[in-house]
Design brief:
Number of domains: 1
CATH class: Alpha Beta
Largest sheet: 6 strands, mixed
Strand content: 25-35%
Helix content: 10-25%
Shape: globular
Strand order of the largest sheet: 5-4-3-2-1-14
């Protein structure tokens, strides 16, 4: 495919805990009139994050294909001719997953279920059972999906790179201070574009509370920080890339991050 400029971005905001209707209306309003090819929204963007009981999770969990999030984003993807990645609480065959979905302008939906669960997520969600996969986003761009704490395991991004991802979409609810810088390394070591979309704000549920670090960002396949928001902004930014640049995995004339691997020594 001929090299093409591609408009990608993040939608950073503060979801309201347990209020799917409010959050969907907020995302719809923020995305209205925004021209892009791919926009990534936060982890669990539809429902918030700080749970105290499994019943709370069940009340906000939905089917990817038939739930309100899939319905709204199918409409947005068609109307705006844009692919979206959004995090949601998924229920499938009675099991709960911390998931994200890719929704394309043609109406197709693809799901990733978070594999590396963080902290109390292990109380509410099953470990993802779909693996790390690369899907075609708008215009056939090869998009890999991972969620939040997957960042700390280099194998996650590497698995997607080995499957020819040009861009990694990374919805997040970050509370630790390390990820944004670490994702620069993930881009360098895989020569892939990364989009990390975090949420903002302080979320409370009873005596529990978490502060989220914002700083959503886009990093180039060479590790250049193309754009980063601050901790508190509720906004969208769009930047332009050429995804096909990620197909070139050469570091020097003599070195390639994929073909220079020697897996028999990594055991």
């Amino acid at each position: 495919m001929k090299d093409q400029k591609y408009k990608i971005g993040v939608c950073q905001f503060q979801p309201k805990l347990f209020d799917i209707e409010h959050n969907l209306k907020k995302m719809e309003k923020m995305l209205s009139g925004i021209k892009a090819d791919l926009i990534v929204l936060p982890e669990l963007a539809t429902c918030g994050y700080v749970f105290n009981r499994i019943e709370e999770v069940k009340k906000v969990s939905e089917s990817a294909e038939n739930g309100p999030t899939g319905k709204l984003f199918r409409e947005l993807a068609s109307d705006n001719n844009c692919s979206y990645v959004v995090g949601f609480a998924e229920i499938d065959d009675g099991k709960l997953f911390n998931s994200c979905m890719l929704i394309n302008p043609d109406g197709n939906i693809f799901v990733y279920r978070k594999i590396h669960l963080f902290c109390e997520e292990k109380k509410w969600f099953e470990v993802g059972n779909l693996g790390f996969n690369v899907f075609n986003a708008k215009n056939g761009i090869k998009l890999g999906l991972m969620v939040c704490f997957d960042w700390i395991f280099p194998e996650a991004a590497r698995s997607l790179s080995l499957k020819d991802a040009q861009i990694i979409a990374h919805p997040s609810n970050l509370v630790l201070p390390f990820c944004q810088q670490a994702m620069i390394t993930r881009s360098i070591e895989n020569q892939v574009f990364t989009i990390t979309t975090n949420r903002t704000g302080l979320e409370k549920n009873g005596e529990k509370e978490l502060h989220f670090t914002g700083m959503s960002q886009v990093v180039s396949n060479k590790g250049e920080l193309l754009k980063r928001l601050n901790e508190d902004e509720e906004t969208i930014f769009i930047t332009e890339i050429v995804p096909q640049f990620a197909d070139n995995k050469n570091i020097t004339e003599w070195n390639n991050v994929i073909t220079d691997r020697i897996p028999e020594y990594y055991g």
